[in-house]
Amino acid sequence: MELIKEAKNLWALRDSIKAEISKNRRSRDTTKWIAEVEMKESEVSELKNKYHNRKNHTWGFRFRIDLSKNMAMECKQIHSLWEAGIRLRGEFDAELPDPVIGIPAPRMEHNSSRHKVVEELVNSLDDAEISSIGIWGIVGIGKTAIRQNLNNHKGIAKMFGMVIWVTVSKVWSLGSLQHQIMRRLKLNVGSSEIENAEIISEELKEKKCLILFDDVCHYIELVRIIGVVHDNQKCKVVLASRDQGLCKEMDVDEIINVKPLSNAEAFDMFKGIVGKHIYSPRIKPMAELVLRECGGLPLLIDKLAKAFRRMRGDIQLWKGGRGSLRNWMNMEGMDEVLEVLKFCYECLDSDAKKDCFLYSALYPEEREIYVHYLLECWRVEGFIDDGQLVLKHHLDFSLLESSGNRKSVKMNKVLRKMALKLLSRTEDSKFLAKPREGLHKPPNPEEWKQVSRISLMDNELSSLPETLDCCDLLTFLLQKSKNLISIPELFFTSMRNLRVLDLHGTGIRSLPSSLRSLICLKGLYLNSCINLVELPTDIDGLKQLEVLDIWGTRLSLFQIRSLTCSKLLRISLSNFAMRSQTQNQSETVSSFVSLEDFSVDIDSSLQWWEGIGNLIVVEVAALKKLTSL
Q1: Where are the alpha helices (DSSP H) in 293-326?
Q2: Which of 44, 208, 279, 528 could form a disulfide with 505 if both were Cys (CB 3.0 to 4.6 A apart)?
Q3: d(Cα 199, Cα 596) in Å, to the nearest integer?
């Protein structure tokens, strides 16, 4: 019987998919398909019984015709389910995690000290008696570069079926580390850390896996993250830390100390960046003296070489550069590294470049900052009108690092510490920068006084002080504070000089009446405040406002009708409100006569979009200054 044949094929496919795709990796579509197949199995069983019992009953001719039709329909549905299952299995095969994901890594000369460390790691990982290795050394010594080259090593790809890179941030949790691993393995996240550990352990128990932990600063209980690792000799771990004692505390099987570059290696690295000018008889001796002051730290050599590269063959610039550098070489340990890096900052040839560099220290270390957002902030802060050239300069000199997609940048943690150290010594530009530090309470009110820029973003704050003395404040970054649902009414009263206020991604439902005090405000970011429904009615005093982002909020255009001075406006289609208000909402657009950049996030699936779309087009066409849409 054709129905039974098709059904057996479907049941076999169902059993194969259940065996191949663990429940921890099944997509919603796959889970739904399995449920539909099992429901169909019950239906087929019932039809099968009716078919076999048809001779034992006196059912009429009509019943038998209906039975035949039902069986034909079931056969067709079963075949459709079988085809859907084949597609799902194909999609699953395409979505399996790559065994190794290549990472951009600095080239290492064969037989150099760094190359030898990589080879030593490869040999140790091939030893059945070694399951965990710790590498340690001072900041800037090249631990990350070593692990990047290890990740990309051909021998590692042959040795392990899966290589996982895990970044350990300053504020971390077991859950955050587990989520990195589970994203890499394309696993569904469980409901608890215990369940996640079980899921990861189950996934890795039959795999030869290498996990690379980057920049470990605190003790990590690996068993709680990935299950019982020591019982699985196929799963191995390499961790990097600045602290040798931490490696011992974590009971690794082998510890490798990464030492500074030799003079010869340092010179080779330096000349590879500076170029042919280093071979000048008058410049080479000075280059060697500069390298002595770098202490063999690759990070410093890289930064300084890029700073000296622009001096080309000018002997006077080389002399002045070396003299400036020497003034900062009078401290030990981390302070020495930070002070040396100050030289790179001093090489910036304009106040605008320096201000833009220091501004980037407001964001968490090694965390990505969207380029368009950073450039907007630089502009409204008054640093520079077009920041593209400054950004390119900072990227060229590694003061900022570009992400792979070029849409975001980040600041090296050492450079950020240096920037904050510089700021701590200035009287006219003090920063209160505590982003992503796990704060549950706001800093002491005394810390807010005489501060020009504050960053408390991405913390666990649920409240703010009622009032503050912040008359010098220019920048206040509070974004991603999801636990913050309200702001005290008088909170902004003293911030009359504030230029940038970023509250995006907070849980606020409204803004206080003291918002009207921000008469110098130029950038207001409220995007992704999904609960925000209300603004103060008397905010027409914000006449300096240039950038307004209400994307993803529940605000209507009618509520911001008095902010027509804005030059850049980002909204969602939902900000046009319901159909009953569409006419009024669309007509509000043309009142923003100063708009140069207008962005609307359109969801064409909304049924009322067709009714309002043409109205919006007409309104936008009336904006005479618009240059970007």
Answers
A1: 298-309, 315-326
A2: 528
A3: 51
